């Protein structure tokens, strides 16, 4: 293979990968010098001249002329007899520059050289992709569905870069077809070997935050700050917002007239229920707002253990807990407090769960109390399936408790 053929084949990679001239020349020289080291043992006496635009490549070996029979290093020295074959008037002590043709390296060396060139190009390309997407972590991004696998969706962006959206990074209601345009965020970028792995997510809280920035002008302009976002993807989310301008109602601006501004975000997230609340540094008020739509009666804060005991009217308890326990769980995540809810009520109308301590183990009573079910009726009013979802108790345990409580009321 002639020099020009090698350069021409390499130029194809240059055109496809958009490598700049300086980088291209640096990669070429590095690869050629490695080949020369393997062939001659060292490369410091070689000059490599590259013009990738024209496909020109020249390699010159520089040696010193020594008297015949006195050559000790064939790479650095050349005998007078051999030197005069190149130019008849050479004398001992002069420097000789001789062009090295790639063909002289041998066919196997040339094939290895070309493979190294390809490898270096891909390595350079992967490094650039890694740096590019590492800077985009946490940013909104769009890509097209290329391939749907059992545990992940493979997407391609406009430049042909591959992004991976694992099953757990998809909203449960998401359904994709090949060619669909999908919005999400670049969650993480890692190098595995020399290949960048770009993880695309629609479940990350920052995805919802970025949608607020895109869809709500005041958030984009910085007039409204998104202080915190917590989500159960596809089910429910809570977003705390704040504004330094007292003239702006941050919640009203985010929701819009009759929910007009937030409607597009809800639809993008598969009808995820979004509660927007006013952020405050007042812990009691913040917890009260976080438990919306429930209206609380009183709150007792334990700062040391980061716990809050919340008292509610009986009809508000189910609102505070929410379907599947989502509301109270998200309120706890948003505020950073473990929230225990208690219902107001007369002992004549109901029986405190603590009164069954001789029949029901203490840890079971605490688990029910944790989600606001601290009386017999509050548990009996719930379906067994719902109790399994909102507690960490087995169905068999729940049925046993229900039987004990029912026996009490029958008596």
UniProtKB/TrEMBL annotation:
GO biological process: DNA-templated transcription termination; transcription antitermination
Alphabetical UniProt keywords: Cytoplasm, RNA-binding, Transcription, Transcription antitermination, Transcription regulation, Transcription termination
Pfam families membership: KH_NusA_1st (PF13184), KH_NusA_2nd (PF26594), NusA_N (PF08529)
Domain of life according to the entry: Bacteria
Main location per the UniProt record: cytoplasm
Complexes and interactors: Monomer. Binds directly to the core enzyme of the DNA-dependent RNA polymerase and to nascent RNA.
Family: Belongs to the NusA family.
Official protein name in the record: Transcription termination/antitermination protein NusA
Biological classification of the source: Bacteria, Pseudomonadati, Bacteroidota, Flavobacteriia, Flavobacteriales
Gene that this polypeptide is encoded by: nusA
């Amino acid at each position: 293979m002639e020099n020009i053929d090698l350069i021409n084949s390499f130029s194809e990679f240059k055109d496809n990968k958009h490598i700049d001239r300086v980088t291209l020349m640096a990669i070429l020289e590095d690869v050629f010098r490695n080949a020369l080291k393997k062939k001659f043992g060292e490369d410091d006496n070689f000059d490599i001249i590259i013009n990738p635009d024209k496909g020109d490549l020249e390699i010159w070996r520089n040696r010193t002329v020594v008297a015949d029979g006195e050559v000790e290093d064939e790479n650095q020295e050349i005998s007078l007899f051999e030197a005069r074959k190149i130019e008849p008037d050479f004398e001992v002590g002069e420097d000789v520059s001789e062009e090295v043709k790639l063909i002289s390296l041998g066919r196997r060396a040339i094939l290895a050289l070309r493979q190294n060139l390809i490898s270096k190009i891909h390595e350079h390309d992967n490094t650039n992709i890694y740096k590019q997407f590492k800077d985009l972590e946490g940013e909104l991004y769009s890509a097209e569905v290329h391939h749907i696998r059992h545990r992940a969706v493979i997407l391609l962006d406009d430049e042909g870069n591959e992004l991976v959206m694992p099953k757990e990074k998809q909203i449960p209601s998401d359904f994709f077809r090949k060619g669909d345009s999908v919005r999400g965020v670049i969650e993480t970028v890692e190098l595995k070997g020399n290949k960048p792995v770009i993880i695309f997510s629609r479940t990350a809280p920052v995805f919802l935050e970025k949608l607020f920035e895109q869809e709500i002008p005041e958030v984009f302009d910085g007039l409204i700050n998104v202080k915190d976002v917590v989500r159960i993807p596809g089910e429910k989310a809570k977003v705390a917002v704040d504004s330094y301008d007292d003239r702006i109602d941050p919640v009203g601006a985010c929701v819009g007239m009759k929910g007009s501004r937030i409607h597009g975000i809800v639809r993008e997230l598969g009808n995820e229920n979004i509660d927007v609340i006013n952020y405050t540094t007042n812990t009691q008020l913040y917890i009260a707002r976080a438990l919306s739509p429930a209206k609380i009666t009183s709150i007792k804060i334990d700062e040391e253990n980061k716990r809050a005991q919340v008292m509610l009217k009986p009809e508000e308890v189910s609102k505070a807990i929410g379907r599947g326990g989502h509301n109270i769980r998200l309120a706890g995540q948003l505020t950073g407090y473990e929230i225990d809810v208690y219902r107001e009520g007369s002992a004549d109308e109901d029986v405190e769960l603590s009164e069954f301590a001789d029949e029901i183990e203490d840890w079971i009573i605490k688990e029910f109390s944790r989600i606001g079910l601290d009386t017999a009726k509050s548990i009996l009013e719930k379906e067994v399936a719902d109790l399994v979802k909102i507690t960490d108790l087995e169905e068999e345990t729940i049925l046993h408790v229900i039987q004990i409580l029912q026996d009490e009321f029958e008596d």
